[in-house]
Amino acid sequence: MSHLRRATADVLLGLALLAYPKAFRARFGPEIRADFRVIAATGPWPVLVHTLGQHVVCGAAERVAALRRWPLWPNRQSHLYEPRGSRAVFWENLRSDIGHALVLARRRPVVTALAVLALALGIGANSAIFTVVNGVLLQPLPYGAPDDLAMVWSSNPREQKPTNVVSPANFLDYREGVKDLADLEGFMSFVSSEQMTTSEGLEPVLVVNVGLRMFDVLQRQPIIGRTFAPGDTDAVVLSHGYWQRRFGGDPTTVGRVLTLEGRPSTVVGIMPDDFVFPYSTMLGPDGFTTQTGVDAWSAWSPERDPFASRDGRIVRNVHYLAVVARLHAGVDIQQLESRLAVVARQLEQAYPDSNAGWGTAVVPLHEQAVGPVRTALLLLLGGVGIVLLMACVNVAGLALAQSVARSRELAVRAALGAGRGRLVRQFLTEAVLLAMAGAAMALVAVNWGVRGLVALAPRTIPRLGEITPDGTVLGVTLAVAVLAGIGIGLVPAFAASRPDLRDALQDGGRGAAGASPKARRLRSALVVSEVALAVLLSTGAVLLLRSFTSLLSVNPGFSSASLLTMQITLPRRLATADARLAYYDELFARLRAVPGVVAAGGTTRLPLGSTSVSTTLDVEGRVLADADLPEVQFRRAVDDFFGAMQMPILRGRGFTREDGPQAPPAAVINEALAARLFPGEDPIGRRIRTGPNPARNPWMTVVGVVGSVRHAGLEQAPAAELYIPHRQGPPVAPFIVLRTSGDPAGIVESVRSGLRDFDRGLALFDVRTMTDVRATSVAPRRFILVLVSSFGLLALLLAAVGVYGVMALVVGERTREVGVRLALGAQPGAVLRMVLGQATRLALAGIVAGLVGAGLLSPLLEHQLFGIRPYDPVTFAAVPAVLLLVAAAAAYAPARRAMRIDPTQAIREQ
User: Fold this and answer.
1) Strand partners of residue 267
2) Which of 809, 813, 248, 261 is nearest to 510 (CA)?
């Protein structure tokens, strides 16, 4: 055969053999080539082509058969073309390992149950917290293409307002200036409680006023009806939840006319169940209620500006709009920010009185919605991760102890030919099975855990209603279980996969008496790491506890004990100020007549329990541009508000009945405002007036200075506040405060009954004690504290279990040594000190490592702390002391057992 013919035949045969599986070619390829060369040397080309075709067909058939045999699980038939049957051996070994693990689990049910429970606790807690993190932080917002949405704010660094609401006139200019980059739409930055007139009386409805194109910008459509259209001035769109609660899901609700605040409003659509807008974090600082759930959306347009001037011009110096932007394709946040900055500078030059110092800020909508809670939730995820790590360390220690007891078994298997890899795989299989069993238990309980977290969580956390376990949670749980199992299995595998055959197989060797030096070092390292993790987590928990205690000790500026609060809305028939004043006189006379009420008053902004409204302030004798006027918080004091709240009058007087409509306008300022406007001066008798158009507002005489209250929260310094009397501007929806002689909750029904008898048209809602209001204001911090403290206590318990387990093993292994010591005259107290000393040395090593870690990570808690620093010396001294006591207490029982060892019996048994 010519050289060219042989080379061509070899190439063609190589191509034909590619049809066979690789293992088949490796096993039989040389024989096929040898046979084919014989045929190629004597046969004609048609025979060669026929032979090559047969190999292609047979190879394809063999490859299909191989694929059918090995999709997920092998059959029990041998595969001759696979060297040593590697795949079959692997699966057979895996089945054997699983069977052996199940047998061991049945033989030691208590140990198995403890390991599974520990892992279920750690994995379940991680799954529950991750479910919250996934639902709040990771899932996209319920809008179309949510990554293209952002919020546009006014920004004034001089006033320390990085993200402030926008004025309607500026909003229109922003929209026109960036129309080639984004679509902008606005909404009033508060949830208002409007009264709906029904056949049974008045009923509150939580409403947000949104621009006509807001739903188009969000790219969400109703399930029934339509959204707003041009010309819709008195139209509402209902939320799915309110539609179900109030109208029973009746489709004919669309088209119905509701009477809201005395005006007819037509229902034009029903939004889907998953639609939420706005989240509480999207609202600005102003508003009329702290409620964030929305029942309906009402149509709004800039032309309906409630603060428009008398000639109809839209205002620039009153800010109350939140603005949502949808970026056009190919536009990013930086481009929009740059263009808006140019527009803001142009407005500052064109309108210096209102726009001097004001710029813009753009925040991605997802960041705006969940950014404020991201740090707290990640803190919880980190804390529960430490708990899982400690649970894994405990189970790894348990597995290591069991591996010592199984050293003879492992030695026998090694002597019979099992390699190190085979033994390692056995340990990994056992550990992963335990972890998967724990994960299964965790998944069963994760729904309950999530419900408990949602029930415990404060309402200020956005997206709580969207939290649910899903495929992502399932995948993460299984991944965590596998990783935990591998980590746990590697510990005993590392220590016991190379047993000393001579010592393990002989009587009295380590296989019966104790662990190898490598296993002992590894066991000690586990205890040290567990104590270190406990120190780390406990330090964070104590820091948060001391911070919360410091917060609760803050004086809010009033007495919250024995105080009942509620909000009312006056009937719409009281159209004049005189009618409302007469109504208030009789109303407060009725309230003071309720048994147990000792003082009654009201305000338009309840401390710790409502939002804020601000205004600019002009001081007589000082010439300032409108943009330079100081901004202060504005309140109305109704009846005896200062007396009911027990707010001290520091100078001058409070309001009296003489401060009526015909009297000169009067004002009371708080201590913070007095220090800001009149430092070193007596403010009594000075005259001030409010914006937004001070020139058209009357001068008010300061008649008193009242103590400052912490309105926005206990952790925030008191703001500058201005009060005017209700007799010179009676409000329509004030908060009422009642000082009682006993438990304020005990008079709620008497108050309700008295107001019902007084006027059934009076809307009464949000009845709470001030103690509850104060507790709600600190609910976010309390939520984090409760969970992290629970993790800290669990960490202490796990550390104690770890120390106890190790010291119990040490005493068992050193029984003969202790017996010899006692036989030679050692005192039981010396034995006690020896065992406790060993436990103390391990604990001290863990404490040092934990303190180093706490020192590195504590600054991450700085934004969660109040009144203390991250390196609080009390905390960093108390936590190690407690851990040392816990370790000593855990080691005491094994140490006492060592003291009672009978020397004769110990030596005889060994």
Assistant:
1) 236
2) 813
Q: How far is CA 138 from CA 366, 386, 421, in A?
A: 9, 21, 40
Burial (CB < 10 A; 0-12, 13-18, 19+), residue 229, is exposed
634: its two tokens: 């504005």
DSSP summary character for residue 145: S
pLDDT in tens, 448-460: 888 888 888 887 7
φ/ψ of residue 301, rounded to 5: -145, 155
In DSSP terms, which residues pair with 188 in a beta bridge? Answer: 321
Q: Pick the closest to residue 360 from 158, 627, 162, 184 (CA basis).
A: 162
Segment among 486-490, 538-542, 819-823 with least mean pLDDT:
819-823
> What backbone torsions phi and psi does residue 416 show, to the nearest 5 degrees?
-85, 5
Whether the upstream peptide bond of residue 278 has omega within 30° of 0, thus cis, is: yes
Verdict on whether the full-model pTM lies above 0.90: no
Closest CA to 512 of 394, 398, 411, 395: 411
Ranges of H-type helices in 72-199: 86-107, 109-133, 168-177
Eight-class DSSP state of 560: -
Helix (H, G, I), strand (E, B) or coil at 723: strand
Strand 666-670 and strand 763-769: pairing?
Answer: unpaired
pLDDT digits (tens, 9 = 90+) for 800-817: 888 877 777 777 666 666
- Rounded distance, CA 408 to CA 851, Å? 40
End-to-end Cα separation, the chain, in angstroms: 81
Using a pLDDT cut of 70, give the percent of the chain over it: 86
Q: Which of 776, 871, 589, 764 lies closest to 201, judged by CA?
A: 764
Of 149-153, 308-312, 545-549, minimum mean pLDDT range: 308-312
Q: Measuring CA to CA, which residue among 831, 804, 828, 813 is closest to residue 894?
A: 804
d(CA 746, CA 596): 9
| Token pair for 641 | 């508000």
Contact criterion met (CB below 8 Å) for 713 and 640: no
Token pair of 538 as six digits: 């406990």
Rg (C-alpha) for the chain, rounded Å, is 38
> Residue 609 and residue 597: Cα distance in Å, rounded?
21
- Residue 894: asked if its preceding bond is cis (omega within 30°), the reply is no
Half-sphere exposure of 542 (CA within 13 A, CB side): 22
* Amino acid found at 732: V
- Pick from 65, 323, 36: which is nearest to 172 by CA? 323
Contact criterion met (CB below 8 Å) for 209 and 315? no
Task: Compute how many other C-beta atoms are within 10 angstroms of the C-beta atom of residue 701.
Answer: 15
Q: How many residues does the chain have?
A: 910
DSSP string covering 774-813, please?
A: HHHHTHHHHHHHHHHHHHHHHHHHHHHHHHHHHHHHHHHH
Which two structure tokens, joined as six digits, stand for 587? 């109303």
HEC string of 103-123? HHHHHCHHHHHHHHHHHHHHH
> What is d(CA 903, CA 647) in angstroms, rounded to the nearest whole number?
76
| Three-state DSSP state, 646 | coil
User: What's the whole-number mean pLDDT along residues 528-532?
Assistant: 89
Strand, coil or helix: what is 705?
Answer: strand
* 321 strand-pairing partners: 166, 188
